[in-house]
Amino acid sequence: MKKELSPELKAVEKYGSDRTCLIPILHEVQKEYRYLPEKALRNIASMLDISLVDVYGVATYFRSFSLEPKGKHTVTCCMGTACHVRNSPGVLEEAKRTLGIDAGETTEDMLFSLETVNCLGACALGPIMVVDGEYHGEVTPAKVKKIIGKVKHQEGRD
Amino acid sequence: MAKIKSPAMLEEYRNEILRKRERYTRVISLCGGPGCHAQHCNEIYEAVKKAVEKNGSSESVMVRKTGCHGFCEMGPIAVIQPEGIFYCKISLEDVPEIVERTLEKGEAIERLLYSDPESEKAIIKESKVPFYAKQKRLLMSMNEHIDPGNIEDYLAQGGYRALVKALFEMEPLEIIDEVDKAGLRGRGGAGFPAASKWRACRKAIARDGIKYVLCNADEGDPGAYMDRSLLEGNPHLVLEGMLIGAYGIGATEGYIYVRHEYPLTVENLLIALDQAREVGLLGKNILGSGFDFDIKVSIGGGAFVCGESTALMASIEGRIGEPRVKHIHTAERGLFNRPTNLNNVETWANVPLIINQGAVKYRKIGTKTSTGTKIFSLVGSINNTGLVEVPMGMTLREIIFDIGGGVPKGRKFKAVQTGGPSGGCIPESLLDTPVDFDALYDVGSMMGSGGMIVMDETTCMVDIARYFVDFLCDESCGKCVPCREGLKQMLFILEDITQGRGSLDQLELLKELAEVMRDTSLCGLGQTAANPVLSTLHYFEEEYIEHIKKKKCRAGVCKPLISFSINAKKCTGCMACRKACPVGAIKGKKKEAHVIQPEKCEKCGICFEACKYGAVVRK
Ligand SMILES: Cc1cc2nc3c(=O)[nH]c(=O)nc-3n(C[C@H](O)[C@H](O)[C@H](O)COP(=O)(O)O)c2cc1C
Ligand code: FES
């Protein structure tokens, strides 16, 4: 029986086993698991021949990596300056209320994670909220419930 | 495609591309920049392509998806050549008519044209639209002629001619001298003269013969996206700049460090690198000149401090992206301890222009000490949101009011923030300040990388200071004490003030903290972190005092200092606010005046938004 390659091995094959490839490898592996499991970090360390501490250090230093499992859907609110002056704090507040979690957390049913980001480069449409990669522009607190509600509905959780 | 081995072969290839394109009577360029992308321009592009194929005109009409054109407010946008017709806010339904009338017959469709807000007249040509007419788009104007996934577009625009000139007609030192004479200053923030850095790196001794040139595309300034638009829309322009710089410096390897929030930029860049390699514009013995150079892409992990030069280098090496002290310059020992030169995306993009037209002509634009143009991301409370490229020396007022069209919704301008988290807020009284590295510094802000955020009366200046300190507190790497602890203390104080617990002596403490952080922090992040606080304290002190003494936030932003109520005279009892309130704080029957219960109200402002009659009062 042919064994499926692990995401770690696939990422190392794609980017190379040089230390400079660590960040892209972590990104790639996180895409697969939606977070960075300890086992993956150990595998990466041994494949790149660096200490686990070094991998752990980088994985916890950068905000885009998570060592905690993430929800099935990701809601991201832009907190950049352009969005801020157009009331992104109000949007985030409402997203927190609707999902019942804080930014950076995941709902207990593992359905939603709420994230913030410092600018998506689409400032003209601010405030921006991204749900699973789809951009919603000029979001107001009142629109938040509808946008998230649509996903909840698809999941049969309304 | 066979490798191009000489300048003559490059010209031949270019002519072949141009000849091949003679059959096109019309070209439609659809903007695929970040703003238009979020508005589903992809589907429009696919639809236009399909429609053109279907009616058999793909032999005479070229359909192109490009990078950002700049006028993001009006997206999705398209430009049709040779007429120069400019369409805005187009939708899928408009596609058949655009193909039939404009692409076939060259007619302009009135409803898709930009209507001048003053005269209300429809404007046909892009060049006549006031937003564009007052700019000087030396770099950005090329975007609309280029599909970033096709090197032939860049060559058709005369691309890589500057490289040929540099490699075959100039000595490396002559290149540095030319850039020096042009007065090119770094566009990434500090405005450091590019040629001085290049010279230092050229002089530095590389023990194993390897030197690096790097491109900073980390663009951490929240609210700024000009580097993204340049690199994503016209990658070869940046590559050509880096090639020329590398030849001048004597570097053989390059890296472009892109933030991971820009996946499309990375994708376009990788394609551009592949295509450049394939034709021999990167790699060994470029164009037969004997010069070797190649570029790799490195991706960030979402840390603002990685825009700082030494942190960026650590991050490329696969280490924790923390800055180090710079008593040894990176020009001597940078990436992998080898001589390294780092410049910003826009800085590199200016280089081909300087080599092509010469320093003397380049200097004619801009001011004496700040030459050339600068791209700003004009965002926030502004009518014409977008990217604007202006000659340095233009005043903030001209940018915000003549190009940006002023503040929307009848609101009043309050301040403009430049320089990102290291910059400051500039008040109305200083709007005649020219955008110039030194003039902006003198008013307590800085040029920064080009974020320009306009604020109106609904922005609280104490809250904005708190916002930036909060941002930096989060982003401080924690290596040095003044920045790590100073920011925390500043944040405590600003939270006190915005929540109505502040006292006047805390203002003195803020200033003292600011001084210590400026003098003793390890890197630029901490050294400039107090600028948003100091500038708002300087120009908007009365707002701070109002928060402290009167417990009042005039902008209606600081929640503990505001309250919501319903004006019974205006309330029609339509129930809209009651339905909208997420915490059930509003009581009232249909057609009767409603009441907000203050003990339940969380001051989210949703009722304020929901009321069509202006009956909800925010005080
Ligand atoms: C905290 C911090 C963040 C920075 N972020 C950026 C950035 O996102 N992009 C950039 O080009 N320069 C940034 N810089 C400036 C760089 O350190 C460096 O000066 C610049 O890239 C040099 O290029 P230039 O001379 O062409 O401007 C940052 C500096 C600091 C201290
Ligand atoms: S500030 Fe939100 S997209 Fe730029």
Could you outline the blueprint of secondary structure elements for this entry?
The complex is a heterodimer of chains A (158) and B (619).
Chain A: H1 7-15, H2 22-33, H3 38-48, H4 52-61, E1 73-78, H5 81-84, H6 88-99, E2 112-117, E3 129-131, E4 134-136, H7 141-154
Parallel strand pairs in A: 1-2
Antiparallel strand pairs in A: 1-3, 3-4
Helix pairs in contact in A: 1-2, 1-3, 2-3, 3-4, 6-7
Chain B: H1 7-20, E1 26-31, H2 34-37, H3 41-54, E2 61-66, E3 78-81, E4 85-87, H4 95-105, E5 114-115, E6 122-123, H5 130-133, H6 151-156, H7 161-169, H8 172-182, H9 194-203, E7 212-217, H10 226-233, H11 235-249, E8 253-258, H12 263-279, E9 294-299, H13 309-316, E10 340-344, H14 345-357, H15 359-363, E11 373-380, E12 386-391, H16 396-403, E13 413-418, E14 424-427, H17 437-442, E15 451-456, H18 461-475, H19 481-498, H20 505-520, H21 524-528, H22 531-539, H23 541-550, E16 564-566, H24 576-580, E17 586-587, E18 595-596, H25 606-610, E19 616-618
Parallel strand pairs in B: 1-2, 7-8, 7-10, 8-9, 11-15
Antiparallel strand pairs in B: 1-3, 3-4, 5-6, 11-12, 13-14, 13-15, 16-19, 17-18
Helix pairs in contact in B: 3-4, 7-11, 7-14, 8-9, 8-11, 10-11, 10-12, 11-14, 18-19, 18-22, 19-20, 20-22
Bound molecules: flavin mononucleotide (FMN) and FE2/S2 (inorganic) cluster.
FE2/S2 (inorganic) cluster binds at residues 78, 80-83, 119-123, 126, 128 of chain A.
